[in-house]
Amino acid sequence: MADRISEIKSLLDRLAYQLTEELEAQREEIQSLKERIEELEQRGEGLSSEPMRAGGAGNTYVAPSSPFGQTERPYGSSLDEDTFTDSQEEEYINDAPLSPSSTLADVYPEDNPDKYGTYAPEKPDEEPAPVRRPFSYTPSASEPLFTVTDLNDVHSAPRTTVSDLFAERNTIADVAQSKTPTWMVDIPGPKVEMIQSALTFNDRLTFIRELFDGDSEQFNITLDRINETSTFDEVVSDMRDAYPEWDEGSPLVYRFYMEVRRRFRD
User: Fold this and answer.
1) Do the Cβ atoms of 191 and 262 come closer than 8 Å?
2) Per-block average pLDDT, block size 10, for the chain (266 residues)?
3) Radius of gyration of the chain (CA)
4) Could you tell me the residue ranges of all domains in the chain?
5) Farthest-apart Cα atoms in the chain, separation
């Protein structure tokens, strides 16, 4: 503890010594500035009190001593003669006589066309307008001018009935239904020996609730039947007979049959 106090005391002594030296240096700098200011003030008083010596035509003005040396020039030299005030310059400009031949027409030539002529800007060359030729058409002798339609032929044409529209609609539905489902052609997952191993717990719950009306026993019987069946087409035929209400285009039926196909994959 004593060593720590001694170290802090030594540090404070060094700081005090440094501050003392800095204060002394600032004090000397301030004193030097004061002396410089006094010297400049004395030189300014000498400039203001220096008299001008007059001696007639040869009078000269002696500039006081300065750091740049003394310069002498005759009093009233050309430098003073060429110096004008603002009022003298204005009088000189206003009193300047105009030339007798100077007129506004000389200043603005466009106002005097008799002397200077008129100015017309050059216009670009205009392209000639295209020549329009009259349209003419001469029909051939074999081409009839008008086509006459027999009104009896128009009314005798077969008209589309509502039954025809429904028949066409049924035909489109049959074509859509006869289209091969995607779960018949898509590639299934890896092959499994038992259909139960292909289904997750969530798959079982979803299929029982949505496809088998919540009957888990019937669901398990169906899986056993699938394991005993030899071909996938036979499974599809049995399922269509047992559950004709299934929508084979729904995503849920697609998932079910894709898992079943894993049992019959080569």
Assistant:
1) yes
2) 82 86 88 90 68 46 48 50 52 51 53 63 73 58 60 59 55 54 88 92 94 94 93 93 92 94 90
3) 60
4) 1-31, 182-263
5) 147
DSSP state of 72: E
Number of Cβ within 10 Å of residue 181's Cβ equals 13
Closest CA to 220 of 196, 184, 251, 248: 196
Task: State how far the Cα of 13 lies from the Cα of 108, in Å rounded to an integer.
Answer: 90
- Cα–Cα separations (whole angstroms), residue 254 to 179, 185, 219, 248: 14, 11, 17, 7
Angle between helices 216-228 and 251-263 (to 10 degrees): 40
Structure tokens at 10: 């030594």
Q: Which tokens in the block code for residue 231? A: 């071909």
Name the nearest CA neighbour of 188 among 224, 220, 235: 235
Distance CA 60, CA 53 (A): 7
Beta carbons of 198 and 263 less than 8 angstroms apart: yes
Cβ atoms of residues 110 and 116 within 8 Å: yes
With b for 16 or more beta-carbon neighbours within 10 A and e for fewer, the 184-194 pattern comes to eeeebeeebee
Amino acid present at 56: G
